[in-house]
């Protein structure tokens, strides 16, 4: 009974125009209405029982009176909304017919949607209207679900949601809704949006949803309410996502395992009470500090809070919902189309949801959104929470526990009947989405985009757009007004010097450059002061040690020292430190180059890892060359059972730096401390040989230092040159940009073209006109063949004769004319001026030349004609079509 | 060939010759002068050359224990001897001598280069121990047989071989070369020439079948050797678990090994079945004991490993703390010394010196404290460990005793049955119903009751004795093991280690004090 009554209400409403219906008041009702009403009523029963009951009674009891009363009310249907901003007008000729017309099925769906809307509006008078069938570019109403066109574009970056969302956010410029609290009346197709490179939030979401569904995600467009910042894509209160990632580094703590025989720690003899008091005091202090910090933070947050929004909760927004399940998405989340970032389903940016839809179905949210979206349930099959529009189209059924299977089997038949009469959606009317490689690479409109974040500014550039390969620049500021520059990070791509990132810290004045592997000196990171880029200043260089022969990992320099760290060396060296002294001034000829006056070395320290092949007491751990004092100090590794290490000190012989000199030895040049008091003292010979070896090591160490200095200079020089040239690498596979490849391809194309032309020429059929005369017989008989041959030969003969005649005719004409001219000349020879005479002579010689040529041609023609005739005959004989008869 | 004896006077390796050679071949220049002043120990010499000396007998070289290179070429040596102590030798040159047999090289396991060129050797032998051999020169000798080449297959590192000008290669030079290339695929240089891949392939193709056969033989031998080795290690493990051979019939066999009476009695008809049952049951008990023993062994091993791991950890930690303390002190020392050198006021220098000495004392306190702490800690865990091991061992012994009691019970039951069958056999014998094929020696026993019963009892006694012996053996061995281990731990970990560390600390502290004094002296001069 109730169902009946409820079903008729909308119809009544329509006739009396009480239901506010903005656009589609006169849509004819269709047989499908009943069907939908049935389900709809059943679904909506629980929520709206009392409401429908009341209305049903009114209708039956005082129908007449009410009717009269109602008729007195004149309800003016709301005017179709005129778009406030002058809407962009599209030329309908640009679009295929699917944009300009509706198929019968689409019409049916529209009617169905209309009916749905009317019922919805009737049942939920206080809710905002739904976005169901906005007009498209050509002013034709289209159902929103069919505007989604699941598609996969041929770019691997778009296969994951992160890439797709970032692309949409980058590629399009956004437009706000006007006014912010009303639904748009027009929804452009994703194909058009891609072309225009701008759109509102609904168009953003529809495009993104199309890509995500195409990539296999369970994605939906969400229509709801959001904060002002979200609607206006104002991220100036958000921390830049590039800065965020670094903070999420976790430190793993090593848990010490207590084993059965682990020794007990020594007894703690300190007073327990004092410790407790101390701990309490510290805790209090800490709590106080925490409190203060929290207060400060709160204050700061208060300061940074946006001013109150008068339209809070009314601003309409659209975004994308990705449900868990498909493509290994573990948990449902939102994607904000303007920023391309994901938000949890409990995000505070979103204030409520009206409806969601994908390419299959449309669901209206039936849950309370007064507390934001945090508590919403996204089981779309649950009809108490989500009112669906098309029953059974989607697989999102309420998750019924298995136990009830038996019960279901009972009314299996009913289910089947229901399923059979479901309405399915027509295919999307939208053109296939197309995106060229070039446009995809341009990324943003004009290849540039600037975004503002909290205390940060991010500029993005398309690859290859800028000459120096810059693709993004992140500037971090210290204040909100973005005036106090702190750090600038520049990201590069495709640079031939492998520069990857440059960080310029304006506070400390340090510049850090990061490189990809593959540079000639294998530099990985180069850190220097922007004010002093020259050599022999503060700098740090990191290297790709596995690519270097000497295993250099890091080189740290200050004006008076240089420290190098190594890894995996055969000689177990892992650390080298050099202290330089002040340059002594040279009083010599000025023309000497600076390199010939290197900084004097004061001290060199080398440290070695343990070499397990040598006994620890002979394995040098630290080796110090004190160049000023002519001393060499050695420290050996510690033997396993000992805690102290043996040491040795040598004093260099006086004449150590003379070449080829005999080095004298005396026992007091050497001092030692041996850990093991019982060890045999070393022999003097051994010590002497040891000293010789050390002197050699010192020499090679010094050479190494000078080489390092040279290398630094070289690297810096290279960097300067590269920075000036700033060349970009182009992949050999990049046919668009690689000039050489392009040229090669063009050449190939041209050759192909020529080949084709030649083939075409070859294929001109000399028999075609004769065959045409015979009306193109399918098969050539014997008589036909003979006739063809005769005709062909006759024709050639005729043409040859014609040609001969033509040449003959021209020859005669020329001769005649010459004769005429000669006659005229003879007559007027006396009265002629010199010029005329000249002209005549010229003419004569030219005419004679022409005559001569014609004569030659005629002769040759006469000579060639029989040959040509014979050749044709030969050819006819061998022609595959005629050969069997001739 | 070598010179004849009578043409030259043979000489002996004596002190004088050695001293001269060492001095000649020792360090040169300044180093030589120093060395001469100081004297050279023969045990430090690394290389020695004694060529063209007409040496007849290798002798007096036992002092050169560090020697890695020894040249004895161009002498008249007839026998390789006296090289047993030169275990560090890497290079040995005995070319141009009169050697006939390769011998006396088995101790030189580090030898890489062995030259026996131009001798009178007729067979390659006695060098199995030289697994490191890289270069082997046996040219100009009397090698006659191809199978000597096969002998060289056991040296995987052999890269260079010189075997030219032997009787074996004289007839068919190319064929011999190919033979060598095929059977010694690791050799890269043969008779001073590179064996290229092409030659090797060709040679291999020529002798393919034989080579394959040889390889097969080698592999089989290898597998057998591995098997043997595996068995040895397995038995070793069983021995360590004190249950060796208990998974076999050895105990049962032992029981009857020294038991002539029992063996005779076993020939009584019907006893063989009983014997099978007895054997099976005994085997089952032994097997159980065996498995239990292995389990216990694993437990003990885990316990011991854990103990050592923890001890080493504790020592390492303690060592690190000590090293940290020393390093910190060294930094301070450097600073103080620099300051002292720059000072001029004696009073301040004295103050500084006082400060330094205080710090040295503090370091001594710290290091000694750490050592004492470690001693306490170790003592405690050693005690724990001792107790736990004691428990484990006693549990094991109790179980062993229980299992062996089961074995004894089985033996008793078997004995009763034996008595029964013996009695019935005796009766049959009395009635003359015995089968004809009963052996004579059994008939001898079955004469009267006493004889039979004596035989049965003596057999039973032997069996019990065997079981008792087994038990005693296990108990003694495991107790000895435990005692030894605990003793070693006490001595090594507690006493020796502690002494060494304390000596070290004292030595270090003394050195540090001396250093300050030395510095002070310098100061005084300045």
Q: Overview of this structure, please?
A:
The complex is a heterodimer of chains A (886) and B (526). Chain A has 886 residues and is an alpha+beta fold. Chain A contains 20 helices and 25 strands. A 16-stranded antiparallel beta sheet of chain A has the order 10-11-12-13-14-15-16-17-18-19-20-21-22-23-24-25, with helices on one face. The model of chain A is unreliable at 1-58, 80-84 and 396-420 (pLDDT under 50). In chain B, strand 9 (189-190) and strand 10 (193-194) form a beta hairpin. In chain B, helix 8 packs across helix 13 and helix 11 runs antiparallel to helix 13. Chain B is flat, with a radius of gyration of 37 Å. The relative contact order of chain B is 0.05. The model of chain B has no long low-confidence stretch (mean pLDDT 86). At the A-B interface, helix 16 of A face helix 2, helix 10, helix 11 and helix 13 of B.
Work out the helicity level of chain A.
Answer: 25-40%
Strand order of the largest sheet of chain A: 10-11-12-13-14-15-16-17-18-19-20-21-22-23-24-25
Number of strands of chain A: 25
Largest sheet of chain B: 8 strands, mixed
Strand ordering within the main sheet of chain B: 2-4-5-6-7-8-9-10
Report low-confidence residues of chain A grouped into runs of 5 or more.
Answer: 1-58, 80-84, 396-420
User: Are there runs of chain B of 5+ residues with pLDDT below 50, and where?
Assistant: none
CA-based shape of chain B:
flat
Write the layout of secondary structure elements.
The complex is a heterodimer of chains A (886) and B (526).
Chain A: H1 2-16, H2 32-61, H3 63-72, H4 97-100, H5 104-123, H6 144-147, H7 161-171, E1 173-174, H8 190-196, E2 198-199, H9 201-214, E3 218-226, H10 228-231, H11 241-247, H12 272-304, E4 316-323, E5 333-336, E6 341-344, E7 350-357, E8 362-365, E9 386-388, H13 405-410, H14 412-420, H15 437-442, E10 448-453, E11 456-461, E12 470-477, E13 485-492, E14 499-505, E15 510-515, E16 523-529, E17 539-543, E18 552-558, E19 561-566, E20 573-580, E21 601-608, E22 620-626, E23 631-636, E24 647-651, E25 670-673, H16 684-725, H17 739-762, H18 768-773, H19 782-828, H20 834-878
Parallel strand pairs in A: 1-2
Antiparallel strand pairs in A: 3-4, 3-7, 4-5, 5-6, 7-8, 8-9, 10-11, 11-12, 12-13, 13-14, 14-15, 15-16, 16-17, 17-18, 18-19, 19-20, 20-21, 21-22, 22-23, 23-24, 24-25
Helix pairs in contact in A: 1-2, 2-5, 7-9, 8-9, 19-20
Chain B: E1 11-12, H1 15-25, H2 29-38, E2 47-49, E3 55-57, E4 69-71, E5 91-93, E6 113-115, E7 135-137, H3 147-151, E8 160-162, H4 167-170, H5 173-183, E9 189-190, E10 193-194, H6 197-206, H7 208-240, H8 250-257, H9 260-265, H10 271-342, H11 346-430, H12 440-445, H13 449-525
Parallel strand pairs in B: 1-3, 2-4, 4-5, 5-6, 6-7, 7-8, 8-9
Antiparallel strand pairs in B: 9-10
Helix pairs in contact in B: 5-6, 8-13, 10-11, 11-13
């Amino acid at each position: 009974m109730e169902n009946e009554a409820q079903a008729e209400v909308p119809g009544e409403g329509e006739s009396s125009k009480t239901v506010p219906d903005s656009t589609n008041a006169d849509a004819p009702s269709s047989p499908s209405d009943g069907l939908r009403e049935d389900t709809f009523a059943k679904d909506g029963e629980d929520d709206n029982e009392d409401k429908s009951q009341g209305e049903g009674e009114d209708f039956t009891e005082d129908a007449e009176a009410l009717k009269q009363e109602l008729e007195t009310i004149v309800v003016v249907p709301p005017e179709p909304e005129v778009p406030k901003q002058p809407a962009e007008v599209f030329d309908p000729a640009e679009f295929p017919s699917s944009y300009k017309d509706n198929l019968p099925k689409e019409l049916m769906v529209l009617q169905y949607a209309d009916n749905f809307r009317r019922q919805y509006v009737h049942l939920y008078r206080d809710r905002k209207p739904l976005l169901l069938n906005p007009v498209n570019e050509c002013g034709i109403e289209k159902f929103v679900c069919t505007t989604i066109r699941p598609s996969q574009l041929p770019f691997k970056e778009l296969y994951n949601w992160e890439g797709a969302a970032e692309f949409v956010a980058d590629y399009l410029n956004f437009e706000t809704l006007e006014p912010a609290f009303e639904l748009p009346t027009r929804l452009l197709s994703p194909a058009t949006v891609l072309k225009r490179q701008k759109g509102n939030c609904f168009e953003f979401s529809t495009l993104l949803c199309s890509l995500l569904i195409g990539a296999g995600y369970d994605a939906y467009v969400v229509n709801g309410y959001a904060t002002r910042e979200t609607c206006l894509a104002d991220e100036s209160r958000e921390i830049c996502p590039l800065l965020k990632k670094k903070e999420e580094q976790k430190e793993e703590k090593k848990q010490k395992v207590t084993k059965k025989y682990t020794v007990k720690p020594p007894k703690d003899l300190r007073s327990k009470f004092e410790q407790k008091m101390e701990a309490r005091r510290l805790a209090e202090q800490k709590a106080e500090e925490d409190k203060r910090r929290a207060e400060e933070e709160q204050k700061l947050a208060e300061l940074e809070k946006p001013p109150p929004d008068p339209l809070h909760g009314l601003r309409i927004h659209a975004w994308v919902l990705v449900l868990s399940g498909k493509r290994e998405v573990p948990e449902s989340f939102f994607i904000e189309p303007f920023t391309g970032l994901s938000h949890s389903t409990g995000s505070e940016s979103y204030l409520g949801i009206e409806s969601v839809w994908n390419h299959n179905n449309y669901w209206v949210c039936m849950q309370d959104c007064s507390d934001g979206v945090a508590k919403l349930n996204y089981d779309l099959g649950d009809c108490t929470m989500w009112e669906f529009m098309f029953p059974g189209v989607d697989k999102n059924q309420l998750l019924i526990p298995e136990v009830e299977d038996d019960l279901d089997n009972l009314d299996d038949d009913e289910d089947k009947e229901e399923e059979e009469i479901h309405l399915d959606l027509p295919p999307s009317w939208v053109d296939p989405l197309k995106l060229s490689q070039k446009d995809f690479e341009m990324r943003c409109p004009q290849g540039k985009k600037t975004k503002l974040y909290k205390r940060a500014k991010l500029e993005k550039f398309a690859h290859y757009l800028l000459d120096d390969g810059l693709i993004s620049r992140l500037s971090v500021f210290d204040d909100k007004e973005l005036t106090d520059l702190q750090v600038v990070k520049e990201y590069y791509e495709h640079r031939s010097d492998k520069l990857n990132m440059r960080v310029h810290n304006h506070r400390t004045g340090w510049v850090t450059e990061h490189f990809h592997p593959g540079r000639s000196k294998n530099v990985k990171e180069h850190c220097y002061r922007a004010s002093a880029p020259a050599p022999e200043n503060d700098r740090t260089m990191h290297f790709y040690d596995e690519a270097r022969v000497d295993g250099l990992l890091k080189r740290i320099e200050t004006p008076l020292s240089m420290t190098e760290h190594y890894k995996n060396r055969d000689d177990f060296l892992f650390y080298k430190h050099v202290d330089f002294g002040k340059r002594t001034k040279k009083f010599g000829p000025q023309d000497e180059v600076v390199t010939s006056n290197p900084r004097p070395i004061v001290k060199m320290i080398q440290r070695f890892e343990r070499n397990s092949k040598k006994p620890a007491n002979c394995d040098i751990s630290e080796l110090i060359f004190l160049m000023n004092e002519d001393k060499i100090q050695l420290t050996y590794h510690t033997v396993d059972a000992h805690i102290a290490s043996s040491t040795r000190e040598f004093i260099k012989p006086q004449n150590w730096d003379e070449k080829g000199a005999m080095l004298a030895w005396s026992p007091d040049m050497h001092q030692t401390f041996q850990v093991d008091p019982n060890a045999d003292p070393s022999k003097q010979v051994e010590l002497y040989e040891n000293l010789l070896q050390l002197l050699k090591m010192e020499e090679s160490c010094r050479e190494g230092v000078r080489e390092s200095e040279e290398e630094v200079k070289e690297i810096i020089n290279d960097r300067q040159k590269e920075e000036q040239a700033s060349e970009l690498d182009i992949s050999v596979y990049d046919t668009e940009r690689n000039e050489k490849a392009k040229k090669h391809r063009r050449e190939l194309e041209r050759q192909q073209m020529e080949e084709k032309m030649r083939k075409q020429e070859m294929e001109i059929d000399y028999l075609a006109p004769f065959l045409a005369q015979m009306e193109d017989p399918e098969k050539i008989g014997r008589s036909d063949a003979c006739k063809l041959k005769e005709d062909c030969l006759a024709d050639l003969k005729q043409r040859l004769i014609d040609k001969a005649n033509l040449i003959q005719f021209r020859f005669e004409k020329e001769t005649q004319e010459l004769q005429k001219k000669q006659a005229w000349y003879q007559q007027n020879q006396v009265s002629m001026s010199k010029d005329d005479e000249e002209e005549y002579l010229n003419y004569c010689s030219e005419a004679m030349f022409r005559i001569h040529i014609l004569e030659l041609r005629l002769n040759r023609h006469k000579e060639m004609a029989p040959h040509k005739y014979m050749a044709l005959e030969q050819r006819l004989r061998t022609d595959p079509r005629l050969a069997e008869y001739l | 060939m070598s010179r004849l004896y009578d043409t030259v006077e043979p000489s002996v390796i004596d002190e004088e010759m050695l001293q001269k050679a060492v001095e000649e071949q020792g360090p040169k220049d300044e180093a030589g002068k120093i060395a001469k002043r100081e004297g050279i120990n023969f045990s430090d010499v690394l290389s020695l050359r004694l060529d063209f000396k007409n040496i007849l007998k290798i002798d007096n070289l036992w002092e050169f224990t560090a020697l890695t290179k020894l040249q004895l070429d161009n002498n008249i040596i007839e026998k390789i001897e006296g090289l047993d102590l030169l275990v560090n030798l890497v290079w040995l040159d005995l070319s141009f001598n009169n050697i006939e047999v390769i011998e006396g090289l088995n101790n030189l396991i580090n030898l890489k280069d062995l030259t026996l060129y131009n001798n009178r050797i007729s067979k390659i032998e006695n060098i199995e121990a030289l697994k490191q051999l890289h270069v082997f020169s046996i040219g100009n000798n009397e090698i006659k047989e191809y199978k000597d080449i096969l002998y060289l297959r056991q040296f995987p590192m052999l890269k260079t071989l010189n075997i030219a000008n032997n009787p074996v290669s004289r007839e068919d030079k190319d064929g011999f070369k190919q033979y060598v290339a095929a059977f010694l695929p690791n050799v890269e240089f043969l008779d001073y020439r590179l064996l290229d891949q092409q030659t090797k392939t060709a040679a291999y193709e020529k002798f393919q079948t034989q080579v394959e056969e040889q390889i097969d033989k080698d592999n089989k031998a290898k597998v057998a050797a591995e098997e043997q080795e595996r068995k040895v290690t397995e038995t070793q493990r069983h021995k360590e678990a004190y249950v060796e051979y208990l998974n076999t019939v050895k105990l049962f066999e032992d029981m009857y090994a020294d038991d002539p009476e029992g063996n005779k009695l076993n020939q009584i008809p019907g006893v063989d079945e009983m014997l099978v049952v007895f054997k099976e049951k005994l085997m089952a008990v032994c097997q159980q004991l065996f498995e239990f023993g292995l389990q216990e062994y694993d437990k003990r091993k885990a316990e011991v490993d854990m103990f050592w791991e923890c001890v080493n950890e504790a020592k390492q930690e303690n060592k690190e703390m000590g090293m940290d303390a020393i390093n910190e002190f060294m930094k301070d020392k450097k600073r103080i010394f620099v300051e002292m050198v720059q000072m001029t006021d004696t009073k301040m220098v004295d103050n500084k010196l006082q400060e330094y000495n205080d710090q040295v004392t503090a370091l001594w306190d710290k290091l000694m404290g750490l050592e004492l702490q470690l001693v306490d800690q170790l003592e405690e865990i050693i005690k724990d460990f001792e107790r736990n091991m004691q428990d484990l061992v006693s549990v094991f012994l109790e179980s062993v005793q229980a299992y062996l009691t089961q074995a004894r019970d089985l033996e008793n039951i078997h004995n009763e049955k034996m008595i029964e069958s013996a009695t019935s056999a005796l009766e049959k014998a009395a009635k003359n119903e015995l089968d004809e094929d009963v052996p004579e020696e059994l008939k001898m026993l079955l004469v009267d009751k006493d004889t039979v019963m004596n035989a049965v009892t003596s057999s039973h006694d032997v069996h019990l004795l065997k079981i008792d012996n087994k038990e005693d053996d296990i108990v003694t061995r495991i107790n000895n093991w435990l005692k030894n281990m605990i003793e070693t731990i006490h001595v090594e970990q507690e006493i020796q280690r502690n002494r060494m560390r304390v000596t070290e600390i004292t030595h270090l502290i003394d050195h540090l004090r001396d250093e300050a004094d030395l510095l002070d002296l310098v100061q005084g001069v300045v």
